[in-house]
Specification:
With 155 residues, the chain is mainly alpha-helical. It has 6 helices and no strands.
């Protein structure tokens, strides 16, 4: 939706594009702890772990989807655009009959990129949590063995 608004207003595009591009300069590792602290306590019980994931996922997918949608809407053939204006088509008609169909390849590639980024994020977070759980389990096993050995020696 933001891409459609920006495609129709050059003023809004010039005003918001620096902030949209600037939002990607902050590393996700700097934002993630703040998101977890701010978002998770505000959610009800079963959703507490997923709130931060949803916010971070939205942050990761916002930029490519917005930029590709904007570029796709601007990629309409200039001759077809001129023809639509010659026929006195409204901005709404130009959007739905010309710009939206020409932007679909851009939007679908952005959605594919966003899905890939989300898949990688979820897979890496799952791998990290499994690794941490494995380390904790391994350390607990070592502690139990060490305690058992110390009790055998004491007896």
């Amino acid at each position: 939706a933001l891409g459609v608004v920006l495609a129709h207003s050059r003023l809004l595009q010039r005003g918001f594009m620096p902030y949209i591009v600037g939002s990607q300069t902050i590393p996700i590792l700097a934002i993630a702890p703040m998101v977890v602290v701010w978002v998770n306590p505000k959610l009800p019980g079963p959703f507490q772990g997923w709130g931060a994931v949803a916010v971070i996922a939205a942050y990761l997918t916002f930029f490519p989807v917005t930029i590709n949608t904007l570029r796709g809407l601007q990629s309409a053939d200039p001759r077809a655009l001129e023809l639509m204006r010659t026929y006195a088509a409204s901005r709404w008609t130009i959007l739905w009959k010309l710009r939206m169909p020409s932007s679909l390849p851009y939007v679908f590639s952005a959605l594919k990129l966003a899905a890939t980024r989300l898949r990688d994020m979820l897979a890496s977070s799952r791998a990290v949590s499994q690794r941490l759980a494995g380390d904790v389990t391994e350390k607990l096993d070592e502690l139990i063995v060490a305690l058992a050995d110390s009790e055998k020696r004491a007896a």
